[in-house]
Specification:
Blueprint (H helix, E strand, L loop, with lengths): L88 E5 L15 E5 L5 H13 L7
Parallel strand pairs: 1-2
Length: 138
């Protein structure tokens, strides 16, 4: 049995994946969904949130035991908002030419290939992303 290493076989060794520039801990605040008040009582009311505006509304007046209203305090940290768990910001790519914009920022942004891209074009995008040392998330 003849054993050849990957260089002799003409296959390049894969590079180490790019490490993200920002490794801030991502904190997700766990909250339930904010439902429209009294939507469970009426079939005609959809559960999508609507701000209560009635003069006697318990929710608007923030009574104890009433459902909570969304406010700015539930927002994500500005530094980690929209951040993927791999600590990269996802950028949707539809064409091979779109990758050139990410050339200098490859440690901050990662590639997400659009669902409408064909298999042949996807393969070309992945090859070009490897050349530019870009992380592909999907």
């Amino acid at each position: 049995i003849l054993l050849l290493n990957s260089v002799e076989m003409g296959v390049e060794k894969s590079k180490k994946p790019v490490k993200p520039l920002n490794m801030v801990k991502i904190v997700k605040k766990t909250t339930g969904k904010f439902l429209r008040p009294r939507c469970h009582e009426f079939k005609r009311l959809k559960p999508a949130w609507r701000r209560p505006r009635g003069i006697d509304s318990r929710v608007r007046r923030r009574f104890k035991g009433a459902s909570l209203m969304p406010n700015i305090g539930y927002g994500s940290d500005k530094r980690t908002k929209y951040l993927h768990p791999s600590h990269f910001y996802p950028v949707r790519i539809q064409d091979k030419k779109d990758l050139e914009a990410l050339l200098m920022v490859n440690r901050r942004f990662a590639v997400v290939v659009a669902a409408c891209v064909s298999r042949k074009n996807r393969q070309a995008i992945e090859e070009r992303a490897a050349e530019l040392s870009l992380r592909v998330l999907n």
